[in-house]
Every structure is written in C-alpha cells, then in structure tokens.
Amino acid sequence: MTVSPDDTIGDLASRFPDTIPVFQRLRVEFCCDGQRRVGDLCRERRIAFDELAASLQAAVTAPRRARPDWAGRSLSDLMAHLVEAFHEPLREQLPRLHAMAVKVQAHDDDSRHALAVVLFELGRFRAQLEAHLSEEERDLFALVQRAESGNQQPDDARRFQELRAVLEAEHREAGDALHVLSQATDRYSPPPRACTTVRALYRGLHELEQFMQLHIHLENNVLFPRAASLLSAARIERS
Q: Going by C-beta distance under 8 Å and a sequence separation of 6 or more, which residues neighbour residue 153?
C-alpha cells in the first residue's frame, strides 16, 4: 500500500478498511467527508504527512482478522449486511440510549445542561434515523436489488439519483447531530462524579458515533457508487 497526498479519505477507507481505526482515533470523518484529500487533511490538522502515511500503512500490514471484500460481493449481499449489522442493531440501540437519557434528566448537578442537550438531540436523531432506515430499505435497497436482478425499470436510474441525494443529505445531518452530542458531552467524557447510568450513556453515545461512521461509509463510499455504476451501465445497454 502506498499513500499519496491526493488520495481521498473515503477511497482509502473503502480499499483498505484497516485504515478506519486510524481515522477514528484522529476523529477524522471518513464517511460524509470522504472526498477530502489526505494532503488537505494534513494541512488542516497540522499533521506530518509522512507520519500519517506510516500509521495507515502499519494498520494495513498488521496481522488482522479477515474482512469481507465488499467490492467483490454482490450488492444484494452488501445490503443484507447493512440491514443485519447496522439497521437492526440501531433499532435496538437507539431506544435504549434514549431511555437512559430520559432517566438522568432528574439529576441536579453540573451536568444537567449537557444531559438536557443530549436528550433533545438524541430524540431528534432517533426519529430522523428510524425514518431514514425505513426509507433506505423500502425504496433504495429495493430499487438496487431490482436492477441487480436484471429487472430495472425505465425510471430507476433517475429515481436512484434522487434518493441518493436525499439519503446523503440525511447522512450529513446525522453527522452534524453526532457532532453536537460529542461537543455537549466533552467528547463523551463523563463528569468525575457521574453515576453509572450517565457513564453508560456517554459510552453508548461514543459507540454510536463510531458505529454510524462505519455504517455511512459503507453506504456513501461503497454501495452508492457501485449502484450508480450498475444502473448507468444497464441504462446504456437498454438504449
């Protein structure tokens, strides 16, 4: 693996998934902000390019557990993975986190303002994301699966682009909400005297952020571009 300043963060994360923990440690967005170039990132963060490149290369060459190569698997397999590994866990995780955020509102200490922000933002995030997941499965995933099976309809390519634009915008909104949660909780650092529930809530929010980054990355940087190529090729063949 050779890293160039012109490589984009999203492309590296797609081709070499073992680089993702490096970006996460640096709190670098590799999902919604995946088109940013590595050289630009280094200049903005004042990171030595050689040091970052070495970290990325070390992550790729380190012994690791085999990961699925989604570039070589069917889109139907990828979408099934997204539902099983991300959508369903989110449908279980978000109500649990929201219940904890409600429970700690009774606290009368220095963290009460942060906890009020968490409750508001998490409630809004949950409502928007649950609708988003259903929209993906009902509309976009069904459309892509139809195209992959050879049953693409005349209007599917245009409809896909419309759905993609909406879903990517919603991904950016989700990223913004997670940023607010991170800021409100001082990057998920509970106060020294925080109770067990507050600590569990903060830990859960941190895990949610990392979980969502992987989720959005697989959709923005893998599923959507591959689906666009499939639909475009099918349209050319039919014309």
A: 146
Model confidence over 11-56: pLDDT tens digits? 888 788 788 888 877 878 776 667 889 999 899 989 999 999 999 9
**Inter-helix orientation angle 196-217/112-135, to 10°:** 30
CA-to-CA distance for 115 and 21, rounded, in angstroms? 28
CA separation for the pair 239, 237 (Å, rounded): 6
- Spatial separation of the C-alpha atoms in residues 219 and 201, rounded to whole Å: 27
- With helix as H, strand as E and coil as C, how does the chain read? CCCCCCCEHHHHHHHCHHHHHHHHHCCCCCCCCCCCEHHHHHHHHCCCHHHHHHHHHHHHHCCCCCCCCCCCCCHHHHHHHHHHHHHHHHHHHHHHHHHHHHHHHHCCCCCHHHHHHHHHHHHHHHHHHHHHHHHHHHHHHHHHHHHHCCCCCCCHHHHHHHHHHHHHHHHHHHHHHHHHHHHHCCCCCCCCCCCHHHHHHHHHHHHHHHHHHHHHHHHHHHHHHHHHHHHHHHHHHHC
d(CA 227, CA 143): 10
> Which residue ranges form the domains of the chain, and what is each CATH number?
9-61 (no CATH), 75-238 (1.20.58)
Phi, psi dihedrals of residue 120, rounded to the nearest 5°? -65, -50
Average pLDDT, the chain: 88
Q: Give pLDDT tens digits for 195-223.
A: 888 888 998 999 899 899 989 999 999 99
